[in-house]
Here is the input.
Amino acid sequence: MELSKRLILACLLLAFWAGTSPVRAQEPVPSAGIHDLKASFKQDVLKVSYTVEGAFTPAVQERLVSASTIRFVHRIRVLHRRPLFFGGRVLAERNIETSVRYDNLTRQYALTKIVDGAPVESTTTESEQEMRRFMTEIEDFDVAGAAQLAGEERVTLQVRAEYEETWLLFLFPYTYKAQREKDVSLVR
Amino acid sequence: MEPQPTPNVPGRKPRSDRPILVRVVLFLTGAIFVYALLRWARGPDLQQLVSDRVALTFLMLGIGILVLTLAFVLLRNLVKLLVERRRDVLGSRFRTKLVVSFLILCLIPSVALFYAAVTAIGQTVEDLFTPAVEDLAGLSQDVVYATNDARESDALWFSREMAREVTARRLLDSVDRAGLELHARFWLSSYKLDLVAIFLADGKPAVLVEGGPPGGPGRLSRRALAEILKVPIRKALGAGEEASRIDRLDRGQLVSGIAPIRAGIDGRDIGGAVVGGYYLNEEIAAKTTRIAGINQEYRQLKAYRREIKRVYTGFFLLLTLLTLFSAVWLGMYLARQITVPIQKLAEGTREIASGNLDFRVEAEAGDEIGDLIRSFNNMTADIQRKEGQLEERRLYIETLLENVSAGVVSLDREGRVTACNGEVYRLLGLDPARDIRGMQGAEAFSAPALRPLLDLLRDSAGAEGIRATRELTIAAGGRTINLAAIVSNFLGPHGRSSGVLVVLQDLTLLIRAQKSAAWREAARRIAHEIKNPLTPIQLSAERILKKFRESSPDLGRVLEEGAAAIIAEVSSLKAMVDEFSRFARVPAVSPAPNDIKGIVESALSLYVGTHPGIRFDRDLDPTPARALLDPEQMKRVLINLIDNSIQAMGGEGTITIGTRHIPERGVFRIQVADDGPGIPEEDRDKLFLPYVSTKHRGTGLGLAIVNRIISDHAGTIRVEQNTPRGAAFVIEIPAAGGDNAG
Here is the structure.
């Protein structure tokens, strides 16, 4: 191919790239975090408490006030770590899905909590603070019982919160996550 | 024979054979998807769609897959075109030009439109969120909130008042529900409320009285009210919290205030809760709901504006690629309409060139290309028919050749043997199992005994239109064969030689017979010639003997006369023997480039003034060409021929000696013609054989010597009828090549 033809091709590609540039908005990458991660092993039950901070990003808040349903998914896993192995053996896993939908007429937040696929709580509130607590705070949640932790002296508690949903390359749905791990001794 | 269409070379599966169902399904899927996109893009469905993550995922993936598929197909076609062009596939250049032209034609406006559309959509979406619109949405919502707040405030105030009255009058201390309801109806009327309800500490509604406008949204059951106000009642009963709220009903809205009823001595206990509320009439409720709905849509639009822009971008990208793809496809389709038949024609020419005359080009084209294909097929059919005729003719000629008694061999311009019959093998002693066709002449006739034939072929090579006859003596296989080789050149379309045809005739038996006849004739003549002087010798000797026996007085005279006669006849015999010896001792010729004119003049000078009745004319070639000849031997030839002519003419007439250089044949022609009685046609063939003479007293050796000298010059001699009368001896000898110009 002659040089001039390559030049024309390059110019066309550049024009095409420039044509698509208006839709490539630069968005700040959210960075929520798991805070106050606490685990307690009482009466042969491993309980976990934590707070997800920074999950209510501007995009999430914008969607919240637009009366869209906002879902946070908390995935809590108890792992038995093994040396030289990636990941670890999963001893227990619980999933909590908290969702909120704002009614801009009544100014009430309709809150729902689903644990392992089963609805456990459905309520309303007019308090934003209460809504935020509902969505982001997990308090003394039973993660694993004695049967699941039998023989374990030390386990790893892995907490992952999925909060903001976005798109990669305009095509693929992607959810931002906050994750944290904590080693928990089960020896009394 | 009707030619059968030959299936084309099997290779890649033709496009038309691909399952039509797959193509139809793909097309319908794409069309339905684009139709759905168009529907979504024009209405509020899009907003609903983009807020649904699963649907949006499918939509974006659908767009993405279509875009990637189109981009892939587009690139694949372009790459394929480039590869074909690099491989110099027939038609690829034309196809590339057409496709690139279409692409460039569509690319610039498509990209410009894409850019403009995406920018416009982006700008339009962003323009929706101006401060004014934002204020309008917010203020309208605030108006609704303010109205509701006022109502809620009233409802809460009245609820608080009712709760205080319940506490003050200890209305919950008794179980007089009727009295409680009576109070409730009084408050309902006094405070102009639409609903008054009293909940007990256990959360159950003890009293529910309702008013409200006729046809209004009221008339809730206790259970329904308890369900609606479950949370604030629980909070009021649990923590003593007051609350005011608005709830959606099936028809309209309920604005309520909830106040705890204090109980106990210090008022710390909660004995129940009072609810006072208003039903918003349907009209107002519908308006506030509508305002909230619009606001909600606006907020959603704002929240999902990126997704909306992405959908539109994807949609426009899809349309742009669809346009480009259509342009490329159209270009390729149009190009294919032209190049595919051309490719098939090219394939047809290759097949026909390789000898497959059954091949027919099969291509669907109804235009001029179709005419071309039909013409091509007709032409192929004609060629096939003529090929058949040629084959029949070839077989006929082969049969003819195989059945002629002469050996026939032909060579092409490059000297390869192209045809040869069985007689050649027999005559030349070649191995019949060795097919010499296709071999070079030098290889086919490589045996040493065939050297004369090779020399003849070499001499004939390159000579234009030569027709030479030469006698060859070939000793092969323990026998000697005399052959007459007649060499003719095939003339091509422009008069140039395209090969050589050699006809070999076995002269062995003929020559043997001729020799035998010649020897008989020679013996007869020798006997005659010897007998002629012997008779006078015998008579002279007998006369001398007789005179001697008679002791005749004239013995001396008779002896003298007899001896003289005997001496004369013996001298005659001696002369005849000398002539025989000369024939036997003709010296070898030494050809060299010589001027033929000088030799002719030298020969004619001998006859100046010798024959007054004969005129000697010259018709000499003016060009300074030279011939390869031995001057003395050629002079002898000319003298011999002139002597023959003089004797034939009887002392009167004209002898013309002419020379001509024939450069196109590379020969020099010398002609000695007279206007004498001529030579009968039946004598011409044996004229040059030894001891054959048409003259009464000739030895028959003169022309034999001439023929031998000319043969030694690699030339030919023949006798023709002179015009208008007489005989003409024509000699052709090789010209002197590059020296001719000298």
